[in-house]
Specification:
By secondary structure, the chain is mainly alpha-helical. It has two domains: 80 residues, Glutaredoxin (3-Layer(aba) Sandwich); 118 residues, Glutathione S-transferase Yfyf (Class Pi), Chain A, domain 2 (Up-down Bundle). The chain contains nine helices and four strands, in the order E-H-E-H-E-E-H-H-H-H-H-H-H. The protein has a four-stranded mixed beta sheet with strand order 2-1-3-4, with helices on one face. Strand 1, helix 1 and strand 2 form a beta-alpha-beta unit. Helix 1 crosses helix 7 and helix 6 runs antiparallel to helix 7. The longest helix is centred in the middle third of the chain and has 25 residues. The chain is globular and about 45 Å long.
């Protein structure tokens, strides 16, 4: 398998954690989003959307794309440890929590959005950074609202075992740290994030531990 990703890509973080939990080794293929390598003809042949991550299975078929779809695929081919609950309601809750990050929060701060804000709308850096922090924090507050009230929340987002929701929560918190978003109002989120980062699978997936991470990361 070959994983096309970027050290700071929040979606790639989710997939890296899943791969680590499953004990699946892949070849890394870094794509520098900040240099526009995702728009190269070579990468567009892998993923026409020009988005990360993309997972090439080596079976001669097109790459898998979109982090949630990739994670669920990995969970199906390597069931242990499971990343989805056994019951239908539990799976729906985990998917719902996961999509707060993957479908609502993260898409508003990806490089192609920032590129458009800078080059088409001509917004200055301070304005762009306020946008990044605002929508990142908004997603975390949505997590908090669900997690703090629901008795299904345990050590992790759903009970006491890691699920896909934790992968998505962790990536969103890491993004919040990069974008200087306020996390003071999301204590349940930060408690669960702390539990996640105690695990080697999450720790090894941290952006700053990736081979393509710069010595001094910025926005």
């Amino acid at each position: 398998m070959k994983l096309y990703g970027f050290w700071r890509s929040l979606a790639t973080i989710r997939v890296r954690v899943a791969l680590n939990l499953k004990g699946i080794k892949v070849e890394d293929a870094p794509i520098n989003l900040l240099k526009g390598e995702q728009r190269s003809a070579e990468f567009l042949a892998v993923n026409p959307q020009g988005a990360l991550p993309a997972l090439v299975l080596g079976d001669g078929k097109p790459a898998l794309f979109q982090s949630i779809a990739i994670i669920e695929y990995l969970d199906e081919i390597q069931p242990e440890p499971p990343l989805m609950p056994r019951d239908a309601r539990g799976r729906a809750r985990v998917r719902g929590l996961s999509l707060i990050a993957a479908a609502d929060g993260h898409p508003l701060v990806v490089p192609r959005v920032r590129h458009y804000m800078e080059h088409e709308l001509h917004l200055d850096e301070a304005t762009r950074n306020r946008w990044l922090a605002h929508w990142t924090a908004a997603a975390l507050k949505s997590f908090e609202g669900h997690l703090a009230r629901d008795q299904d929340t345990g050590r992790f987002c759903h009970g006491n075992s890691v699920t896909m929701a934790d992968l998505c929560l962790a990536s969103q918190v890491i993004g919040a740290k990069f974008f200087n978003a306020d996390t003071s109002e999301v204590p349940t989120v930060m408690r669960i994030f702390g539990e996640c980062m105690k695990l080697d699978a999450f720790d090894r997936a941290h952006p700053l531990k990736q081979a393509d991470a710069p010595a001094q990361p910025g926005h």
